[in-house]
Amino acid sequence: MYRFIARRLGSGVVLIAALATLTFFLLYLGAGDRIARQLLGEDADDAAVRAKEHELGLDRPIWTQFGHWASGAVHGDLGTSWFNGQDVRTAILSRLSVTVTLVIGSTLLTVVLATVLGVVAATRGGWVDRVVQFLGVLGHAVPNFLISLGLVTLFAISLHWFRPTGYVRFADSPQLWLSSITLPVLALTINGVSGVVQQVRGSVLDELGRDYVRTLRSRGLPESRVVYRHVLRNAAGPALSFLGVQVVGLLGGAVIIEQVFAIPGLGQVAVTATGQGDIPLVMGLVVVSAVLVVLVNLLVDLVQGWLNPKVRLG
Amino acid sequence: MSDPSLAVPDVASVPAPGSLRRLLRNPLGVAAIGWLALVLVSALLASWLSPYDPDEPAARDILAGPGSAHLLGADGSGRDILSRLLHASQISVAGAALTLLVAAVIGIGAGLLAGYYGGWTETAGTWVASLIMALPGIVALLAVRAVVGPSLWTTMAIFGVLLSPAFYRVVHAAVSGVRNELYVDAARVSGLSDPRIIGRHVLTVVRAPAIILAAGVGSAAIALQSGITFLGLGDPSVPTWGGMLNDAFANIYTAPVALAWPSLAIGVTCVALTLLSNALRDALERTAEPAPTRHDADDEHAAPPAPSGGEALLEVRDLVVAYRRPDGSARRVVDEVSLSVREGEVHGLVGESGSGKTQTAFSILRLLPAGARTSGSIVFDGTELTGLPAKRLTRLRGDAIAYIPQEPMSNLDPSFTVGSQLVEPIRTHRGYGRAQARARALELLDRVGIPDPERTFRAYPHEISGGMAQRVLIAGAVACEPKLLIADEPTTALDVTVQAEVLDLLRDLRDDLGMGVLLVTHDFGVVADLCDRVSVMRHGRVVETGPVDALFAAPQHPYTRALFDAVIATGEPAGSPQDGADA
User: What is the DSSP letter of B301?
Assistant: First the structure.
């Protein structure tokens, strides 16, 4: 088991390093000499632009720049923002918890709802199954910002159940915090459940057709025990792999949804940094996203290993 | 977007001639095509259809509601919403097409290379694909946007690169699946060049999955394009659905209706593309998923309580098992079968593959696959089983009636230890505590001849051999000392030496427990070794039944004689063990 974790962790680190290297060269070579002028304004004179480039270190060879960035990054130093000189790591960490809260909340809800609905659809069949499948297709196809807009219009603006936008920190008021994240989490969950429920349904149907299920039934186990203890555990493997992909999708979805609800998370940082051409900040965001993705996949692998004895040995 | 990893490479997924007709018979598919055609037409004819210049603001019309002047109203700058919507559909269609083109060219090209040639191209391709997929698409796009600026076309092209792994994975899987197929080998041997083989043989395999995926990728492209422009990161000089949404969202309190139009355009288009993808999958792959139905077979009618047959433990009368064909007619796989099993007697049920013997056995336990319909009477120990409430039948299963399957490994739950699978039914039926049930399970493992019961108890199914697994299954079957044991080809999947041991074990257990046994087999050796009586089945009917000695000495039915002859001629029994699968 430990070797299994170590190997997964190792390949995750390689992935992050490769992605960071690739992104660095794309961004810094792509930025060229446009960036300094953009930062100073279009009417800045050439001397000022050169001076700015020197200040940012852009006049050094790209390899030197990369070496400088990478040696900082391995020590957790992601550089400083070109725009306001803020430390990139601080800027990201201060927003990270909000986005992660959204993603974790909607992931947990997704797991519970998708499991229940998927099992019910697979075992009941008939119209229940058709309704679940249709809603699954619908919820998966409609972009999440549209779902968010629909939720805001309905629950916040028409019904006044929730505040339409803004974020209250848990420490300030747990009640308002809950109210401020309910709609965003719901919007992400609708997308998440729609994808995962189809996977759960399919896996449960696959497992229900297996020989061991018939044998368990022949032993006189109650149907609920067969389904919820045995079938579900075996069906969880493929569904979990898909959930891993879906969580990465939720992370991307959160970036957009935060704009709708005016939530100060990574999405806001990302959109602002992108608009300003703040390359160090963008670079930091890419690295942090990759780390999150690797962590999610590692977690999925751990749960897989816990559920499935064969993976544990592998 | 459909998940590419779910697509199964399959030679049968080559588009069939009737696939277009099947697509047009699907109402959702037709509706999707209709909407997409509408979007396409409005994109092409936007300049003619638009009542206004989409970019011309009119101060007096700012946020005008829908009416005669502006059919759908005007936006925050007083521009006509309908005209902007029509013009924006050009951007959406062209943008999605660009994304699709880039994704398809890169993904299919790389997938063909990697799938056909394998080796380092495969390693490299798969690694790059997983690298690209390691970032949420929107994060990667935002990063790119930071250096290339707001050009929508660059964004869409880059998004195509980001989506290309979806095509790559599907194509790679499909191609590596056929790489070593005989017809591809034959083409290679006959001297066809690689490009021609790829063009002629390999591309046909890729066509259907790629078409299905394309619709899904189109949906993702439109969603993302709208998302980016909604965030305000698009080019403000071009009308886009997402940009219109952004404008309407800013005025959500004053003119909420304006939000509806771009929302509908984006939402319905994305849903239409997804529905089209699903409809294409149904039409092209023809692998309609099995619809789930309740696993319990429906009883067509409960037979009247049969007169109890005296000494018979199991009395089956006029049993019929039928399945509905796709055209609605019923196919009888078991046709008016009658047989009886006495206490302590081993009754053999023989016949070739597809003769209905396994179906007969399953219907006694009510373990038939979904969709089976049964009628007739099954009386066990004085109780009519047909029509018995599911709860009461469940109580009989594993307690008074037990079952031994054919294939040992697939009949143990891979995720639980052998011990826990033995303990669970014992606790259910006997109400034992944990320790007591454990002791009973260990005793059973010892009884069926497992050398180290403690170790096997703790083992997972994949850690024990097939012969051991079959002993474990026998132990599980006799755990509650059943009166009737139904064994479905219990030795077919085992080595010859193990077969003899398992048959000995079954005989011992029968003697110890005084069970009646219904033994399904195609092996006359097993019949001769173990059975007291035998019924021969063919085409779902019992053609001959009687004591083993009499039947072996003088088979009456020509089919029985033919079966004997087949055994003598080939040394192998007729038929394959896969009776349950195709019956």
Answer: -
Question: In 10 A of CB A218, how many CB atoms?
Answer: 25
pLDDT digits (tens, 9 = 90+) for A271-290: 888 888 888 899 999 999 99
Which residues of chain B make contact with A199, given a CB cutoff of 8 A? 3
**Considering its fold, how many domains does chain B have in total?**
2
How far is residue B127's CA from residue B269's CA, in Å, rounded to a whole number?
Answer: 33
Looking up tokens 């009519």, which residue turns up? B384
Q: Which two tokens stand for residue A241?
A: 């792999």
Which 3 state secondary structure label does DSSP give B62? coil
Report, as ranges of residue numbers, the positions in chain A whose pLDDT lies below 70: 1, 32-34, 37, 311-314
Strand partners, B80: B74
Say if residue B157 is in the same domain as residue B58: yes
DSSP letters for B96-117 = HHHHHHHHHHHHHHHHHHHHHH
3-state secondary structure B240-284: CHHHHHHHHHHCCCCCHHHHHHHHHHHHHHHHHHHHHHHHHHHHH
The runs of H, that is alpha helices, within chain A are 2-31, 34-40, 46-56, 62-74, 88-124, 126-141, 144-151, 174-208, 211-218, 223-225, 232-261, 266-276, 279-307, 309-313
Using a 10 angstrom Cβ sphere, with 0-12 exposed, 13-18 middle and 19 or more buried, the burial of residue A142 is: buried
Picking from B100, B95, B62, the residue whose alpha carbon sits closest to that of residue B81 is: B62
- Indicate yes or no: CB of A310 within 8 angstroms of CB of B148: no
Contact, B386 vs B299, CB < 8 A? Answer: yes
How far apart CA B438 and CA B448 sit, in angstroms, is 16
Beta carbons within 8 Å of A105's beta carbon, 6+ residues apart: A181, A185
What is this structure's pTM?
0.81
Secondary structure class of A108 (helix, strand, coil): helix
Residue B23 domain-assigned (yes or no) = no
Asked if residue B320 and residue B245 are part of one domain, the reply reads: no
Does A27 sit within 8 Å of B146, measured CB to CB?
A: yes
**Which residues lie closer than 8 Å to B129 by C-beta, 6 or more apart?**
B164, B165, B168, B169
Domains of chain A: 2-74 (no CATH), 98-313 (1.10.3720.10)
In the numeric block, which tokens belong to residue B520? Answer: 């399904």
Site of tokens 């186990």:
A221
Pair (B35, B178) in one structural domain: yes
* Residue B9 within a domain: no
Q: What residues of A are in contact with residue B266 (Cβ under 8 Å)? A: 143, 146
Count of positions (residues) in chain A: 314
Dump the DSSP string for A217-232.
HHTT--HHHIIIIIIH
Distance spanning both ends of chain B, measured CA to CA: 38
* Residue listed under structure tokens 């009941």: A124
Tokens of B497: 């030496």
Closest among A145, A163, A166 to A98, alpha carbons compared = A166
Contact B291 A129 (CB under 8 A): yes
Residue B130's domain comprises 28-284
Closest CB from A202, A274, A309 relative to B146: A274
Contact between chains at B429 and A286 (C-beta distance less than 8 A): no
**Number of A–B residue contacts, CB under 8 Å:** 229
Q: In what order do the strands lie in the sheet with B346-350?
A: B401-404, B484-488, B516-521, B346-350, B533-538, B541-547
User: Model confidence over B117-130: pLDDT tens digits?
Assistant: 878 888 888 888 88
Residues B232, B141 share a domain: yes
pLDDT for residue B304 is more than 60:
no
Q: Is residue B428 part of a domain?
A: no
Strand partners, B380: B314, B383
| Cβ–Cβ under 8 Å, residues A154 and A183 | no
